[in-house]
Amino acid sequence: MKNYWFALLCFFWLAGCKEVEEITEIKLTGQVLDATTKAPLDSVVVELYEDNDGPFMGTHLLQTFTTDNSSNFSFNFTYKEGPYRVYVRRNGYRYQRLIKDKILNQENIFDFQNVEALKNEQHLVFEMDPIALFSVKVTNVAPAQPDDQVKLEIGKGINNKPLFTRTFEGLANTEFQVGSIPANRYIPIRYEVRENGSWRSLKDSVFLKPSEPKTYYLHY
Question: What molecular function terms (GO) are annotated for this protein (predicted)?
Fold first, then answer.
């Protein structure tokens, strides 16, 4: 009986190996779009990376493609052990995607897409967010106490959490860079101010144009 089960397992293993061997030539096509307008994006550098030298060897670049006005790209390659990943890069844009792991109850953000192992024709679509450099200037316009506070939240990420948070205490007159955040949309701004032991909450929003630096002036 043991020999029977061993032979059966060997049969399925060999069948799986045969299937992998048969599907070795991969034709990968795709398109890159603006996430807000859905317009095709040209001048996007699309990179195909492979990691078939073992877990300790790292990844290396296999092929590169630059999109034209059609925003389409294509790769033809031989699938080995894998995994294979595709990255997209363009000045003034950023790509991110959210993957939810229901088993571990986790959310992970990635800047690439994976190539499937047993599918010889695949099509990937990347939607890239335009970005802009955003800064905030905080000015105290009323007498402040040492225990006064300002809690600031800016933006919403793809995980629906604030992109930026910071807390100021006492007399805060400062200017700081939030960084590059998604543009071509209204960015929510929420801040709470504690004065004389009492909290008050305020909300605002600002429209960010792609690739145009913007400064938000917060007076409290």
Answer: carboxypeptidase activity
